[in-house]
From TrEMBL, chain A:
This is Cell division control protein 45 homolog. It is found in: Nucleus. The gene is cdc45. One of its GO terms (biological process) is cell division. The keyword Cell cycle applies. It comes from Betta splendens. GO terms for cellular component: DNA replication preinitiation complex. The keyword Ion transport does not apply. Keywords: Cell cycle, Cell division, DNA replication, Nucleus. Residues 137-153 have a biased composition (Acidic residues). Residues 137-165 are annotated as: Disordered.
UniProtKB/TrEMBL annotation, chain B:
This is Importin subunit alpha. ARM repeats lie at residues 160-188, 245-287. Residues 1-57 form the IBB domain. Residues 1-22 are annotated as: Disordered. Keywords: Protein transport, Repeat, Transport. Pfam families: Arm, Arm_3, IBB.
Length: 569, 520
């Protein structure tokens, strides 16, 4: 069931209890987790934190903790399957689910005892009404005798003889039931067809902190990062992003206002959050302008930097801005103050000239003391890079802890190491995009585009990770749409596959919806993957919380694709 | 050699190598029976959908029927008054009103009618041959009362309805006779006790006398169902003499084409075969097995289910009985049923297969020849849990009774991988059976001297990890079985440590022996 009063029905229930926090591997989940941890610290609530990367992980984590814990908080996982069916918990386990995955499984919505959904109801949920999808069994069986027992089951020992009229009524009722069932299937099909995301989990928990007047600037910043994660990883529509940004902005001004009279007491380690109308250039404050322009999706796709012509255009653009190349290529930190002062305006002006009307984006920045300034988007990139680091053979939970650490302002070193990783990752993505486009690796399969990264492609290990591969997928599709002349292809979704585990001979497969300004970001590949796997009995693993990300045996790739083509044509 | 004793003891304890296939099958049967009983009890609570009577419609059959509107919604008091009056016409009206109440779908007032003391009147109406309408209405009302709980049925019987209904069977009016058949079916369906009361009253000859070439199909449907109830229930079974009386007619019915008749007749056979080998023998001797096998491929689920159940029962009998079924071609019918869309059918089919796999190696060879291993492995991998459970039994039976070559063939078909995958189930019983199968396969490998190769294969398939995990299973027996496997086939010097850890007396006692096996 949906919880309406998150404070009463969630927080006050778990206070004084031991809680197991099961947290998925994405930045929004980490931020939500940080906020909740801060609240728990504040109220001395004991908890155990368990990172979970997929359904199997979640199952194991539950098994390991079900004896000690009654209350489970699931962050960004669990809403989109019938959780009780999957975990088979005892009757007294209670699950609080704060998950952005949509659609929420109807059983979760209508279970009143064990499933508590911490999900904002003003999100466009469209849950089918109870009466449309559930029927009280008693109504079917209890009242009238002569229940239509399953054909093929043992006959009953006794039978009553009914009125002729009763027989007709029964037939009529059966017909009505069949119709109802057909309608139910249709409703559920419509409801479950697309996968998409709702309000950030971090924002939900921030709101909890706020209604309890326990919100701090740190929490606010985490909520902002959570929201920004949804934007960076393209999970929500532009509309939703702008609306939620406005919400966060109100909180930011409230907090800033609160400190106004203490202006003079600002210490060196204080924290200031500010609304910015900043550039869509990734990590430029921690890089050089030039590298940032080259490796940001927006600019790189716009100039088509993988072409000679594109490189030329970039030079023209830099010249147009009137910035000396030397300044542009050196570290942003070392750029002349005079240039930096109105840099954003200069860039915006030239960008407009070059057709990049949206070079600016509403976002937030943070100052830690006087020296360190970070943009929310850059934090997301840094934390993601840590979370999916492939540098050393570290376990998922090590990476999880590191990424979590990088979000605390006490751990700027970790954050900087994340920024370095993020740069490497972005460069790898740009290079892969360029080589895929230049060597025509993107094939039109009819109903969708398909691109397969071969084993041996540079940085292929990086792309065995779901978020990195998804990001590559999005950048690649944007680049492709810019570069292709085929109008039909511009409207197609993209499926990418990359080697996952050489030993097991598996690939990771990701599907994303078509690229467009007005995209609703709804993804139908989850259902399609399931169906295709089923019909070909391909050996697939649907373990990721996003149903549009699966693992597949290498050998089954072609039959799986064929089935997908037939299915979607 | 002490080693041998221990091994043998272990084998005969929870594995079939110590063999005696009959024992093995028995075990399976009781288990199934328990399940089935539970299922049946469930079914008792429900009531089956109505099969329409053969009677085309009530008006046509009883021309002197009172119009419906006149009798609708009379109160119990009014009914009592009418039924107890002296006028035939009033009695008929009252009886019909009662029947109407008892025939409505929701909350029929069974108890109210009984408490009103109307049953003795109704039973007395049954013998009024000169008042067919009244007879019919009373028979219908009593039928419906007998369809209730055991207590309801008991009231009907105790008011002397049994002899009255049996004489009514001979009524020249077909619809009245049919109603009597139906009522007797309800009484027989109550349980062994009333079933035998009916048999004592010679219900069977009276029923069988009504089967003739021009009996309408609807009548035959009711009659077949009543016969099936007379075959039904155990503890005790129906008397053998009664079974022998009914069988020829049942066989005759099994050769008709109406699906409802076939379904009930097959259920009757399934009840008769759900017993010890002597009971099965009676059925097999009639020569009906080929027809049953044929019906396993019937298009109607309602027919193939009981046919499959009957065949499954028969193959749980002796090797000879099983051979009759194999000779009738069951192995060609099973693969399709193992892939049937309905999981319960798959389960029954694999259950039958598991019992054939418990036979001598000649029969196992027939399984292989007829290509049953691929579908079996497929069910092992993809079946629902109940089906998988039966498939696991099939593999364990196969590996315990099969020759080395046969076991090797099974492994080559992918059964080992499937079994290893199943080691993560929670059910302790299934785990034990799985571990048994693995042990059996190892013993086959031992005979070939390829234990090491198999150990490697099991490890590669992730089996070692899973078996190791099972050493921490809550269930003591599972832990021991897993532990022994590890120790015997994967151990390397860890033994001492293990011995210290073990707290169980029996285990400490046994481990030195196993050590010796290992050093061989």
């Amino acid at each position: 069931m949906f919880i309406t009063d998150i404070r009463k029905e969630f927080y006050e229930v778990v206070a004084n209890q031991r809680v197991a926090l099961l947290v998925a591997s994405d930045i929004d989940a980490l931020c939500a987790c940080k906020i909740l941890q801060a609240l728990f610290h504040c109220d001395q609530i004991q908890y155990t934190l368990v990172p979970v990367t997929g359904w199997q992980d979640l199952g194991t984590a539950f098994l390991e903790h079900k004896e000690q814990f009654r209350f489970f908080v699931l962050i960004n996982c669990g809403a989109n399957v019938d959780l009780l069916e999957m975990l088979q918990p005892d009757d007294d386990s209670v699950f609080f689910i704060c998950d952005t995955h949509r659609p929420v499984d109807v059983v979760n919505v209508y279970n009143d005892t064990q499933i508590k959904l911490l999900i904002k109801q003003d999100d466009d949920l469209g849950v089918p009404s109870y009466d449309d999808i559930f029927r009280d069994e008693e109504e079917e069986e209890g009242g009238d005798s002569g229940n239509e027992s399953d054909e093929g089951s043992e006959p009953s020992g006794k039978r009553r003889r009914f009125d002729e009229g009763a027989v007709e009524r029964r037939i009529e009722r059966q017909r009505a039931r069949r119709e109802w069932e057909a309608r139910r299937r249709e409703i559920l099909f419509d409801y479950e067809q697309y996968e998409y995301h709702g309000t950030s989990a971090a924002m939900v928990f921030f709101e909890l902190a706020w209604v309890m007047t326990k919100d701090t600037k740190d929490m606010l910043w985490w909520a902002i990062i959570g929201l920004t994660d949804q934007w960076v990883h393209d999970k929500i529509t532009n509309m939703k992003y702008v609306t939620d940004i406005a919400t966060m902005q109100r909180h930011v001004s409230r907090h800033n206002h609160r400190n106004e009279d203490e202006e003079n007491s600002l210490s060196i380690d204080c924290m200031r959050i500010s609304f910015e109308y900043d550039l869509r250039l990734t990590l430029y404050q921690h890089w050089s302008m030039y590298e940032s322009i080259c490796n940001s999706c927006y600019t790189s796709c716009h100039f088509k930097l993988w072409t000679l012509n594109g490189q030329k255009k970039l030079q023209e653009f830099l010249a147009d801005m009137g910035l000396p190349l030397k300044q542009v290529r050196q570290k942003f930190n070392s750029m002349d103050m005079s240039i930096k002062e109105n840099l954003r305006d200069v860039i915006e002006e030239s960008s407009n000239k070059y057709g990049m009307k949206d070079i600016r984006i509403q976002t937030f920045g943070v100052h830690f003391g006087f020296k360190n300034r970070f943009l929310a988007g850059d934090m997301v990139h840094a934390a993601t890079a840590l979370l999916e680091s492939t540098e050393k053979d570290e376990s998922d939970s090590d990476n999880f802890i590191k990424a979590l650490d990088s979000l605390s302002r006490s751990n700027l070193e970790r954050l900087h190491s994340g920024i370095d990783l993020a740069k490497k990752k972005l460069i790898a993505i740009q290079q892969t995009v360029a080589s895929c486009i230049c060597t025509n690796l993107i094939l039109s399969q009819g109903p969708f585009l398909y691109c397969y990264l071969m084993e041996g492609t540079p940085d292929v290990k990086l792309f065995s990770k779901p978020m990195t591969l998804t990001l590559l997928c999005k950048y690649l599709l944007k680049a492709f749409v810019q570069s292709t002349r085929n109008k039909r292809c511009k409207l197609l979704p993209l499926i990418m596959a990359a080697p996952k585990d050489m030993e097991k001979g598996t690939v990771i497969v990701v599907g994303i919806p078509p690229e467009s300004e007005t995209s609703d970001k709804k993804n139908f590949f989850g259902r399609a993957f399931e169906k295709a796997a089923e019909s070909t009995s391909s050996r697939t693993l649907h373990d990721h919380f996003d149903t549009s990300i699966i693992e597949l045996k290498m050998e089954d790739r072609s039959k799986f694709l064929d089935a997908l083509i037939t299915l979607l044509s | 050699m002490p080693t041998k004793n221990v091994t043998e003891e272990r084998l005969s304890k929870f594995k079939n190598k110590g063999k005696d296939p009959t024992k093995l099958r028995d075990k399976r049967i009781t288990e199934c029976v328990e399940l089935r009983k539970a299922h049946k009890d469930e079914n008792f609570l429900k009531r089956r959908h109505i099969t329409l009577s053969s009677l085309p419609d009530e008006e046509a059959l009883s021309p002197d029927y009172l119009s419906n509107d006149l009798v609708k919604f009379l109160s119990i008091e009014e009914i009592i008054k009418l039924v107890n009056s002296d006028s035939r016409e009033s009695q008929t009206r009252g009886c019909q009103a009662a029947r109407k109440l008892l025939s409505q779908e929701r909350n029929p007032p069974l108890k109210e009618i009984i408490d009103a003391g109307l049953l003795s009147r109704f039973v007395s109406f049954l013998s009024m041959d000169d008042e067919p309408t009244l007879q019919f209405e009373a028979a219908w009302a009593l039928t419906n009362i007998a369809s209730g709980t055991s207590w309801h049925t008991q009231q009907v019987v105790e008011h002397g309805a049994v002899p009255a209904f049996i004489s009514l069977l001979a009524s020249p009016m077909l619809h009245i006779s049919e109603q009597a058949v139906w009522a007797l079916g309800n009484i027989a369906g109550d349980g062994s006790a009333y079933r035998d009361v009916l048999i004592e009253c010679n219900v069977i000859p009276a029923l069988l006398a009504r089967i003739c070439p021009d009996t309408p199909v609807g009548y035959l449907r009711n009659l077949t169902w009543t016969l099936s109830n007379l075959c039904r229930n155990k503890n005790p079974f129906p008397p053998l003499s009664a079974v022998l009386q009914m069988l020829p007619s049942l066989i005759q019915l099994l050769h008709l084409s109406d699906k409802d008749i076939l379904s009930d007749a097959c259920w009757a056979i399934s009840y008769l075969t759900d017993g010890d080998n002597d009971r099965i023998d009676v059925v097999v001797k009639t020569g009906i097995v080929p027809r049953l096998v044929e019906l396993m491929s019937h298009a109607e689920l309602g027919v193939l289910t009981p046919a499959l159940r009957s065949i499954g029962n028969i193959v749980s009998g002796s090797d000879l009985q099983t051979q009759t079924v194999i000779d009738a071609g069951v192995l060609n019918a099973l693969p399709k049923l193992m892939r049937y869309p309905k999981a319960s059918v798959q389960k029954e089919a694999v259950w039958a297969l598991s019992n054939i796999a418990a036979g001598p190696c000649k029969q196992i060879q027939q399984l292989i020849t007829c290509g049953l291993l691929p579908p079996l492995v497929d069910r092992l991998k993809n079946g629902d849990f109940k089906t998988q459970r039966e498939a696991v039994w099939a593999v364990t039976n196969f590996t315990s009774g099969g020759t080395v070559e046969q076991v090797v063939h099974l492994v080559q078909c992918g059964a080992l991988e499937a079994i290893i995958n199943l080691l993560q189930v929670k059910d302790a019983k299934v785990l034990l059976v799985l571990l048994d199968a693995i042990n059996n396969i190892f013993m086959a490998a031992e005979k070939l001297g390829e234990t090491d190769k198999l150990s490697l294969l099991v490890e590669e398939l992730g089996g070692l990890d899973r078996i190791e995990m099972l050493q921490s299973h809550d269930n003591e027996t599972v832990y021991q079985a897993a532990h022994k496997l590890i120790e015997k086939y994967f151990g390397d010097g860890e033994l001492d440590g293990v011995k210290v850890e073990a707290s169980d007396d029996a285990f400490v006692f046994q481990s030195p022996d196993v050590t010796r096996t290992f050093s061989f």
